């Protein structure tokens, strides 16, 4: 099975003392989303050109590592986020930049009425360090 990886290149600032040893304390969440047929290349292109202000908002909300993988056979996206314990990701849907991004991506994905992607949380069944 061929998979593609879309890396949003979100990382911490090495000058920020809070970024030290956060991996031990990070919360990890995983979820799936669904692309509409035939839009894989456009989805990749838009993420290759992700808006810096969106990346900044994600980092400010506490997301320190965010990867999205694509199963081309089904159009299923598998996303993994690592976030700090005191994250504010619940505030992201109210941000104008998030609403603009969702509207920009809505023609490519299955979405909710507010244009947010339909996201199905996943349960971890195995982990190895």
TrEMBL record:
Keywords: Carbohydrate metabolism, Cytoplasm, Isomerase, Rhamnose metabolism. One of its GO terms (biological process) is rhamnose catabolic process. One of its GO terms (cellular component) is cytoplasm. GO terms for molecular function: L-rhamnose mutarotase activity. InterPro entries: Dimeric_a/b-barrel, L-rhamnose_mutarotase, Rham/fucose_mutarotase. It is an enzyme of class 5 (isomerase). Its EC number is 5.1.3.32. The keyword Kinase does not apply. This is L-rhamnose mutarotase. It comes from Spirosoma fluviale.
